[in-house]
């Protein structure tokens, strides 16, 4: 019975993150930010890494200040990297197994094991951080993150999600090239 309650609780966190995302997409940025903030405090710094990554990833999008957005994106990356490096290979599901967590928006397939979903987050996380650095007029940092985004997008399966990320990486590269006075 305890396992069932824990699984429901974890699914509840993802549901609440999803509800806040829907509020944000519907135009209620402040309420989305308030709900995500409350959930962030509820989860805490020792909470589930997948939840912290997903929450911080979407919390960044609700920020008004570019530095705050960067701070949240860096929290998301830190949670993802910590989760991936701490996982033992024996805990990764075999091919064809499914787990409990949803992959990032637009990524292919049904729900995946959190490790698979977090790995799918990396290109988007690095791209978002690159965009944050660009907004803060830190082009060298932005380019470094774009290199990481490009490397991690190549690890994804072919599909719409991967292509969309590649296109976004290319657009930001062009923007940074123009901003630095280089020709794209």
Automatic annotation (TrEMBL):
Top-level taxon of the source organism: Bacteria
Residue ranges of the region described as Disordered: 85-108
Name of the protein: Tetratricopeptide repeat protein
Lineage, opening ranks: Bacteria, Bacillati, Actinomycetota, Actinomycetes, Kitasatosporales
Organism: Streptomyces endophytica
């Amino acid at each position: 019975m305890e396992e069932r309650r824990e699984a429901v609780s974890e699914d509840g966190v993802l549901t609440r993150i999803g509800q806040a995302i829907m509020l944000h997409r519907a135009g209620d940025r402040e309420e989305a930010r308030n709900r995500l903030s409350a959930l962030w405090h509820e989860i805490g710094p020792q909470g589930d890494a997948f939840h912290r990554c997903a929450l911080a990833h979407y919390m960044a999008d609700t920020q008004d200040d570019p530095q705050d957005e960067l701070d949240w994106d860096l929290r998301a990356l830190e949670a993802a990297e910590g989760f991936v490096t701490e996982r033992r290979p024996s805990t990764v599901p075999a091919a064809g197994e499914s787990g409990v967590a949803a992959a990032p928006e637009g990524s292919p397939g049904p729900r995946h094991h959190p490790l698979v979903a977090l790995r799918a987050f990396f290109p988007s996380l690095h791209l978002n951080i690159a965009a944050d650095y660009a907004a803060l007029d830190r082009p060298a940092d932005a380019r470094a993150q774009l290199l990481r985004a490009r490397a991690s997008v190549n690890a994804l399966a072919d599909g719409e999600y991967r292509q969309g990320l590649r296109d976004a990486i290319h657009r930001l590269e062009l923007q940074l090239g123009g901003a630095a006075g280089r020709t794209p």
